[in-house]
Amino acid sequence: MEDTAFMEIDEQFSLPNLNRGKEKIVNDAPDKKNAPWVEKYRPQSLADVAAHKDIIETIDRLTSENRLPHLLLYGPPGTGKTSTVLAMARKLYGSQYQNMILELNASDDRGIDVVRMQIQDFASTQSFSFSGKSNVKLVLLDEADAMTKDAQFSLRRIIEKYTKSTRFALICNYVHKIIPALQSRCTRFRFAPLDAANVTQRLRHIINAEQLDVTEGGLSAIVRLSSGDMRKALNILQSTQMASPQITEEAVYLCTGNPMPKDIERISFWLLNESFSNAYLYISEMKTAKGLALVDIIREIPMFIFNIKMPETIRVQLINALADIEYRLAFGTNEKLQLGSLISAFTHTRAALVAAAK
């Protein structure tokens, strides 16, 4: 086996698809005029990647020195994992990019037959580089955590057998779903959610390029709703631009269907100050008038809870109660019943605060 220096790099740094959930890149120069912005503004080089500078610099150095190991990139969606590997492949292969890389999405191609046929056939064929660049081929396996255990064990053997001629880049959201035998053969890089500064900087670049009318409130709303997911941020920006000539905070929330912060503030006030019957009536009327889902309200309430002075034990109990309600809603329980549970949770919180004050 080729002597390759492997590293274990689990970074905590804070950036931006192939089949299901991601559009497979079949043309390196697509019609960008009508392309979704997530593809139109996908970084074309490692220097264009907006965040995770330590990770990018390490991969760039390994690529330049022709010491690229097998890679395992993991972390939440929209943080730049796929973009990083594709940018790396463009640097490695130049004009031979399409001939030297095999892209598979494991959520579709997840069984052992794909490993034994497509991947092994690609890895076993001789490759030649006519560009003076690397002649080591690359297998990009996106959403690798969807692979069956048998397929992963089979992939382990193929990685060992074809290390001299092929590099493997595994991309996943949940690294614990990758078997230890595969993890140990790869250099691991953790892509954390992007911080607000990186998302804002990239969005400003796109806003200028598209000549959009975006207010500061609208930009802040997109950044907050994206939660560190660049793909989500770009989709919100593009969809809001289609719906409204000016992208304001209100336009963003109306387009996404999320409750406005001022509405959540009013709901929090009712929960903390009104009787059970009044709070139930007021929240029900607002939900109906503005078309709000209870699960979205519950997800936004903690932001205001952290601004309220209360003992930490009471705050934790309330946050746990909200998480339980959200969990029950995910399984299709009745919204009216869970609204009652929400109000009851705050009623208990009020009683605990009064007791603590005494």
Radius of gyration: 24 Å
Mean pLDDT across residues: 84
Number of domains: 3
> How much of the sequence is in beta strands?
5-15%
State the total count of DSSP E strands: 7
- Which CATH first-tier class of the largest domain would you pick? Alpha Beta
Distance between the termini: 71 Å
What is the second-level CATH architecture of the largest domain?
3-Layer(aba) Sandwich
Summarize the structure.
With 358 residues, the chain is α/β, with parallel strands linked by helices. Helices cover 54% and strands 8% of the residues. A five-stranded parallel β-sheet has the order 2-3-4-1-5, with helices on both faces. Strands 6-7 form a two-stranded parallel ribbon.
Q: What do these coordinates show?
A:
- The chain has helices at residues 37-40, 53-64, 81-93, 97-100, 112-124, 149-161, 180-183, 196-210, 216-226, 230-243, 249-256, 261-273, 276-290, 294-305, 312-330, 335-357; strands spanning 71-74, 101-105, 137-142, 166-172, 187-190, 213-214, 246-247.
- With 358 residues, it is of the alpha/beta class.
- The strands form 2 sheets. Strands 2-3-4-1-5 form a 5-stranded parallel β-sheet, sandwiched between helices. A two-stranded parallel ribbon has the order 6-7.
- Helix 5 (112-124) runs parallel beside helix 6, helix 12 runs antiparallel to helix 13 and helix 12 crosses helix 14 (294-305).
- It starts with 36 loop residues before the first helix and ends with a helix.
- Mean pLDDT is 84; it is low at 1-21 and 23-30.
Helix-strand layout with pairing:
Elements: H1 37-40, H2 53-64, E1 71-74, H3 81-93, H4 97-100, E2 101-105, H5 112-124, E3 137-142, H6 149-161, E4 166-172, H7 180-183, E5 187-190, H8 196-210, E6 213-214, H9 216-226, H10 230-243, E7 246-247, H11 249-256, H12 261-273, H13 276-290, H14 294-305, H15 312-330, H16 335-357
Helix pairs in contact: 2-3, 5-6, 8-9, 9-10, 9-11, 10-11, 12-13, 12-14, 13-16, 14-15, 15-16
